[in-house]
Design a protein that fits this description.
271 residues, mainly alpha, two-stranded antiparallel ribbon, 6% strand, globular
């Protein structure tokens, strides 16, 4: 997961909410009379644009806005009617996410890998945890909202031998308090987030390993070309981050270490 900075809500969503304040997300999606379909499409496109084409949770590439590969996630479940607040039409509650490994039609093994249940992730797994009672419906503070992640320091690291995502103890210790954290510390919040989104399913670990192996090969090429270790990392940071943003951004950031941090600071990275 990485920091996300949301833009102003689409005017079509604002207008729809004013016109039909009690509407649900599904009703808006099917509503042609009040331009709900336009608002729905704008929400999909704008969340993907805000996130630079990455799933808000696992960071897989969803640039193409393919409905088989991605959808809009409501961080606070849109089905929650215990309060008068309409979570389904709350722009700040929306993120673009992948389909969590639930669509066998997508043959790309980074998006789908059997067994499906074990390789579910992101909102698909989160919803299952809520249904099982292992995560509260009001999940804020039990798992981290991507909107609350700071750009610096990174709170995640990756085990290079397994592709496993872990809390970064140094980053977590240096991070200012996060909103509504229900855990003892930030490190436990990050670990619970990883667990409740199943970000270490085999499918995602294998995808991260491919990135790690690619980076290690490029590090070797940098050394063979006569660059020092730090110069090589700096060069690779410019290459990998020349466009916003590559899939599995956090994995790349961790593997490039100080080279990534120097580059991201130089471009005033905010999300």
């Amino acid at each position: 997961m990485k920091a996300i900075r949301k833009s102003q809500e689409p005017i079509s969503l604002e207008n729809y909410r004013l016109a039909v304040p009690a509407s649900t997300w599904q009703q808006m999606r099917n509503d042609s009379d009040n331009d709900g379909q336009q608002a729905y499409g704008d929400c999909r496109s704008q969340t993907i644009s805000d996130q630079k084409g990455l799933c808000a949770f696992c960071e897989i590439d969803i640039h193409d806005n393919n409905p088989l590969k991605c959808r809009v996630e409501h961080f606070h479940p849109k089905s929650d009617t215990n309060t008068p607040h309409n979570w389904g039409l709350d722009w700040q509650n929306m993120f673009a996410v992948c389909n969590g490994g639930t669509r066998p039609e997508v043959e790309d093994d980074s998006f789908h890998m059997p067994p499906i249940k074990a390789n579910m992730s992101c909102d698909a797994y989160k919803d299952m945890m809520i249904q099982k009672g292992q995560l509260p419906v009001n999940c804020e503070g039990w798992i981290i909202n991507p909107h609350h992640l700071p750009p610096f320091p990174s709170l995640f690291r990756v085990h290079k031998g397994t592709g496993e995502l872990e809390p970064d103890p140094t980053g977590c210790a240096a991070c200012p308090p996060l909103p509504s954290n229900h855990h003892q510390d930030i490190q436990k919040l990050i670990q619970h987030t990883i667990d409740m989104l199943n970000l270490n399913c085999d499918r995602l670990q294998q995808a991260r390993l491919k990135i790690i192996h690619h980076i290690e090969k490029n590090k070797k090429k940098q050394r063979q070309n006569g660059y020092s270790s730090q110069q090589g990392l700096n060069n690779l940071a410019h290459i990998y981050f020349r466009n916003s943003w590559p899939a599995f951004f956090t994995t790349i950031r961790f593997c490039l270490g100080q080279g990534a941090e120097t580059h991201l600071n130089s471009i005033t990275f905010q999300g």
